Amino acid sequence: MGALMVIFSLQPKQRRKTDSVEDELELSAVRHRPEGLEQLEAQTRFSRKELQILYRGFKNECPSGVVNEDTFKDIYAQFFPQGDASTYAHFLFNAFDTDHNGSVSFEDFVMGLSILLRGTVQEKLNWAFNLYDINKDGYITKEEMLDIMKAIYDMMGKCTYPVLKEETPRQHVEVFFQKMDKNKDGVVTIDEFIDCCQNDENIMRSMHLFENVL
Amino acid sequence: MAAGVAAWLPFARAAAIGWMPVANLPMPVAPAERNKRQDELIILNVSGRRFQTWRNTLDRYPDTLLGSSEKEFFYNEETKEYFFDRDPDVFRSVLNFYRTGKLHYPRYECISSYDEELAFFGIVPEIIGDCCYEEYKDRKRENAERLMDDQEDNKDAKLPNMTFRETMWRAFENPHTSTMALVFYYVTGFFIAVSVITNVVETVPCGSAPNQKEVPCGERYTVAFFCMDTACVMIFTVEYLMRLFAAPSRYRFMRSVMSIIDVVAILPYYIGLVMTDNEDVSGAFVTLRVFRVFRIFKFSRHSQGLRILGYTLKSCASELGFLLFSLTMAIIIFATVMFYAEKGSSSSKFTSIPASFWYTIVTMTTLGYGDMVPKTIAGKIFGSICSLSGVLVIALPVPVIVSNFSRIYHQNQRADKRRAQKVQKARLARIRISKTGSSNAFLHSKRNGLFNEALELTQLPYKMNLSDQGSTEDEKRLSKSTSLLESQHHHLLHCLEKTTNHEFVDEQYYQQSYLEGGLQNYPSRSPSLSSQDGVTGTCCTRRTKKHHTPLPNASAPAHMQPLTHTHTHPQGLQELSTIHIQPLSTSRSSLNMRVDEPAPLNCQSSQITTAIISIPTPPVTTPEGDAHLPAGPAHQNVVKVSAL
User: Fold this and answer.
1) In order along chain B (644 residues), what is the average pLDDT of each group of 10 residues?
2) Where is the EF-hand domain (chain A) (predicted)?
3) CB B450 within 8 A of CB B633
4) How many beta-carbon contacts under 8 Å exist across A and B?
5) Do the interacting molecules here have an ipTM over 0.90?
6) Same structural domain, B179 and B264
7) Do A213 and B499 touch (CB under 8 A)?
8) Cβ neighbours for B366, distance < 8 A, ≥ 6 positions apart
């Protein structure tokens, strides 16, 4: 009787084995080599040396040349040990993955960084708007903003002072909309956003904060 | 912070731009990158083999030898390289740790030499990666046991000042310590054997008179056997009482397996004494005699192998359970089948399913007594299937049990698993500490690091106003105490705090503030509060707006007084928005604590002018003599004023 059971269990195993072999082949075939250094230099505002440093760091963490969302979340989470950075990392990933193919290659990475670190204020604000606009329809609704806000507050974690309350993100969203939504139609368009940010001194100043990062 | 992702810090900082439009508060200024040198290659010469790596790679772990300034001691001026007179093979693993962030243990390496190298380079072995950790721990345990065995051989000399009780206990546990113990050991062994043989012989039929039926020896020589039994039980009772007296923890001794066996061995005799030759209870009396056979288990004190066998069975409980379970399943199935197959035949012995159990067991274990045999054809077919499958079902778990036994036997089980689990807990705790070390590092540097940045930015006017030579040196010392990477990471976290208008605190403080709930008097932003009023005469770290305004001469920081210092950077746009209290967490935030951390100073709570909560915290140990240090981290019951 035991022999019968063993015979039955052998058959599906073989089928599964061939599947996993194919899977492994697929995984190892995903390798990406970026465009040449000259091309990247032309497309972004980084110098050769900076691109070299960036690529070395990138390749060290992602030897296959592309980052998928899980790796991205892992890497980002290491900078925020106290909280949960995965939701915000998800939004960031979508913002970096401009061609929406589920992985961020080195070109995407470096283009995004080029805007963020070396772009004009207009470009940076554009990028931020793109980040907040989750469904990329050109409008930021309260729900989208609430998601983003919750993601940011999640990164703080539990141990904060003052203690994080449930309605804190919501209140923050209200403040944001009051500031940004000029015509009070419940959504923030790109023009309202850029307009309002350019009038806000704090925001303008903070846009230049990370310019010397590299 | 995980050093492996140090290269992604620029990315994380750039992504912080996403928070900026949402934040309501102005952001802190980024740390300046003074003397930002191009990344250079450094050469590490280890006993002639040259390793080269980027300086940044080594800087990832600033609390090790290679990552800190300690390596300067090994710098060779003529050849412009760092020379280490150590084993180059092990150094390979050490250097790979810096490169990949994972520490591996090479299997061919001796455990003690590896440990020495790790200790030399200041790396804690607990961070060995999961892939190699098991092997490392196993080897370490073997080594430790070998050392212990060596020590025990030398340890036979009697320790002085042992009480009589302790000597007795030692003699019982370890018969080789003295001759008396050895004698006692053999005597008890002999009597156990005698007792068991007596029990056995008692039932043998002795010769008898021709016209009487055969009687067992026990009934023929009742008195002799009774005397023998009494003598044995006397000895066992005395032994048990002596052990009970000598045991260090009587309660634990009484609960141990051996003592239970002892009690079970001698109890039937006493019960038999108490009970008279009452016919009713004689049946029970006879049953009790069966328990006398348990005396044979007393031999396990005398035999190591028996103990190992017992331990194996205990540790293989799951395999034995599986064996039992699968056997039971098979027995029930086959018994049912046989019963129904044989139902038709006449004068079948398979009267019921439970009756068929016996047949199934006998067949599956290939005993085949032959008292029950199937007569129908179907019964015979199923019977043969039954015996074939019996072989398989029994043969499968047995090798597992056998291998378990040999493993335990060779490893010389001495509660290995229990010890390993305790160590595992300690290891996980240490890894957790090092992980939270990064967050604690941030909290720690919040209290003293930001003053740093203020210093740097206001360096020029500050330097002009300072008459004290010592301060500039302190500045330099402070600014070097955190690496650039760390200060950038802390700046990032600080930006997040500003975006959400909440602060990171450590676990301890969070618990307290959570409990105290509504007691907090949380003054909302009041721009009218100036820094002067709030903090004159208190110890504090003042985080001020980093604008470039000149320092007035009058309020130069007073370094000299250890208890009070006022640092004022009154600046035009200063606003105090939160006043809160931050007790200092224990300073052991990371596994390898840097020695040159800025010294915390003690502060009296009475000097707080705006005391909101006084939370008693454990006093911070203060390295002395650092009165010059302008940046004191928060102390107990301190008001920390943060200007936004």
Assistant:
1) 65 83 79 65 92 88 85 87 91 91 89 90 87 87 74 57 81 81 89 89 76 72 87 91 89 88 86 70 72 83 81 82 88 93 86 92 92 92 93 83 78 56 71 70 64 47 44 46 72 84 77 64 41 38 40 38 38 37 38 39 39 39 38 39 39
2) 84-119, 120-155, 168-203
3) no
4) 171
5) no
6) yes
7) no
8) B387, B390, B391
Write out chain A residues lying below 8 Å of B496, CB-based.
80, 152, 155-156
Contacts of A58 in chain B (CB under 8 A): 7-8
SS3 B275: coil
The C-alpha atoms of residue B531 and residue B520 are separated, in whole angstroms, by 21
Q: Which residues of chain B lie closer than 8 angstroms to A52, CB-CB?
A: none
Reference A160, options B129, B89, B497; nearest CA is B497
Q: What is the 3-class SS of B20-42, one letter each residue?
A: HHHCCCCCCCCCCCCCCCCCCEE
B524, closest residue in chain A (CA to CA): A162
| pLDDT over 60 (residue A197) | yes
Domain that includes residue B324, residue range? 308-431
CB distance A161–B503 less than 8 Å? yes
The answer to whether the CB atoms of B510 and A161 lie below 8 A apart is yes
Q: Is the distance from CB of B181 to CB of B175 less than 8 angstroms?
A: yes
> Which pLDDT belongs to residue B87?
92
Nearest chain B residue to A3, by CA: B389
SS3 A68: strand
Residue of B41, B39, B44, B42 whose CA lies nearest to B121: B44
Structure tokens at A12: 């599906």
pLDDT computed for residue B282 by the predictor:
65
Contact A159 B14 (CB under 8 A): no
Q: Are strands B41-46 and B81-84 parallel, antiparallel or unpaired?
A: parallel
What is the average pLDDT across A13-20? 50
Minimal CA separation from A35 to chain B, in Å: 20
- What pLDDT, on the 0 to 100 scale, is given for residue B469? 45
Task: Tell me which chain A residues have a C-beta less than 8 angstroms from the C-beta of B507.
Answer: 159
Report whether CATH 3.30.70.930 matches the domain A37-119.
no
CATH code: domain of residue B418: 1.10.287.70
Specify the 3-state DSSP secondary structure of B82: strand
B302 is written with which tokens?
Answer: 């005398």
Instruction: Find the angle CA(B479)-CA(B482)-CA(B485) to the nearest 5 degrees.
Output: 115
B43 near B52, Cβ under 8 Å? yes
- Phi then psi for B103, rounded to 5 degrees? -100, 125
Choose, out of B1, B17, B382, B434, the residue to mutate when testing the contact with A (most A CBs < 10 Å).
Answer: B17
| Maximal CA-CA distance, chain B | 130
* Residues of chain B contacting A3 with CB distance shorter than 8 Å: 388-389, 392
Q: Which residue has the higher pLDDT, B611 or A103?
A: A103
Block residue for tokens 């203020």: B454
Q: How far apart are CA A39 and CA B181, in angstroms?
A: 88
* Chain B closest-CA separation from residue A56 CA (Å): 8
At the top level of CATH, which class does the domain A122-213 belong to? mainly alpha
The owner of tokens 């509504």 is: B518
B150 shares a domain with B231: no
Residues paired with residue B82 on neighbouring β-strands, in sequence order:
B44, B75
Contacts of A57 in chain B (CB under 8 A): 6-8
- Cα–Cα dist B83/B45, whole Å: 5
End-of-domain residue from the set B302, B332, B360:
B302
Tokens representing residue B556 in the block:
């130069």
Within 10 Å of residue B359's Cβ, how many Cβ atoms? 26
Residues B328, B414 within the same domain: yes
Nearest chain A CA: its distance from B334 CA (Å)? 10
Angle formed at CA B71 by CA B70 and CA B74, multiple of 5 degrees: 120
pLDDT at A163 over 60: yes
Q: Which two tokens stand for residue A158?
A: 């539990």
Query: Quick one: tokens of B233?
Result: 């039980």
Q: pTM of this prediction?
A: 0.47
